[in-house]
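[SOLVED] Need 3D model of a three-part complex

Original post:
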Amino acid sequence: MDYLDGNALGGALGELFAVDVTAAVGQCASCGTTGAIGQARVYSNAPGMIARCPACSEVLIRLVRNEDRAWLDLRGISCLQLALPADR
Amino acid sequence: MARAAVLGRLNWLVGTVAAVRDETPTARTLVLDVPGWPGHAAGQHVDVRLTAPDGYSAQRSYSIASAADGNRLELTVQRLADGEVSPYLAQTLEVGYPLELRGPIGGWFVWDPADPADPAPVLLVAGGSGIVPLMAMIRARAAAASKVPFRLVYSVRSPDTVIYSGELLAREQASEPDGVSVTYVYTRTAPPRSDVPPGRISPAALAVDGWLPRQAPAVFACGPTGYVEAVAGILTRAGHDPGVIKTERFGPTGG
Amino acid sequence: MGIVSPGFAGRRRSGSEKLPPGQYLVTDFPVLSAGPTPRVDTGKWELRIRSETGRVYTWDWAAFLRLPSEDITVDIHCVTKWSKFGTGWRGVSVDTLLADVETSAEFALARSYGGYTTNLPLQDLLGGQAWVAYRYDGQDLAPEHGGPARLLVPHLYFWKSAKWVNGIDLMAKDQQGFWESLGYHNYGDPWREQRYWGD
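Solution:
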């Protein structure tokens, strides 16, 4: 029980994306389970943030940031579905 | 979710402490005035950043306690004895001090009174300081004059650790359908005339005082990781659809 | 840099010549992890060294414990800025493990239960610089600190000291490990503050 919810990634991803990613729906590239990124298990007590699939525990998202750069690996998600604002 | 969607990357903003309000001996609400605040939805949080003169900085996340209100937002901070950030927020900060924050963050753990697709009754389950984002939902409901039934189950160590006790009492006593049903679970010390001995949250507390699966509530559970795990387990074993249970674990990180 | 927060000093950070740049001293032992803690049964534990030709050398737990081991005391430095002095370990020197391994490889990739990997030049594992450690502070190494056994390479940032180690691949070409492929420095010398790519 050393993990947080996907909400914990919200701030770090909010620096990189113009849309909220925690409400986005992702498909795990390992087991195919689909769910909101907010439901991922986030290990943040580390040199970076690692989001894992709540079903199979494989890595979904990896993120490292320092003062001036961020590194993002989304290979653990086969695709990400993002809602667009209604007034587009 | 349209109002919660913030277009453009998050940037750090500087707010000013407009007022402080003691909630319990160890918890304090900060009322912040933040020029440029884009508004927020109930359940979202902010990241707060403190910087020492030598450039060392520490950052923590805090749930927003208030409903959207222009440039104003409130944070309720529980002081952790060995925390690095919470003692500064709960004790050192004073009216007029600046505070750097970014947000609002999070579009998943959110309740929107204007969302027509979601008239389901709502079960809120709070462990300790997990009450904060759920209180934002209760306040947003009131501000929107929403009639969606709300029930809160709130676990605390003892009666003097209840945050927002006065306001929760008032909301409990408000007439239907504005009222919110509140049940307290005391884990260490129960009030003097309680007929329930202190103990951890149980399936009974969530069945009688919460909602039953057939009422198909939307569930928001927030608090320490172990608490949230226990609650989610109880609810799914009782037949609630795991897909409607949204959780926000506060976790042991930071302080 | 953010605006200065009046009255905020942060945790005490002492300056000391023995601390690498940017580090602060701790007296507890922080637990960092990128995933759930593997629970490895020593009855099933295995350490495999694979040479660049594909030749595999393995030890089960009993065979591993029969190898000569040593007690060492070292300072450790985590890239998240904490350092801890005088940590006591018992382990088998990687020189011992590689003594009978034929190789002309220059690079190594350590692998762990749970999928973690980290890479380093083979010569940084030799010459008394690295161990596979199985006891810490007089007790069996706890799972959250990498037990039953972890790699210990104290002269580099501690992410190179792979917890739950179960293998070392010897390679002719370098291959980035878990953090090295995500912005962390390929070598990681704390004394030159090599934390991220390009440092």
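Edit: The mean pLDDT of chain C is 95.
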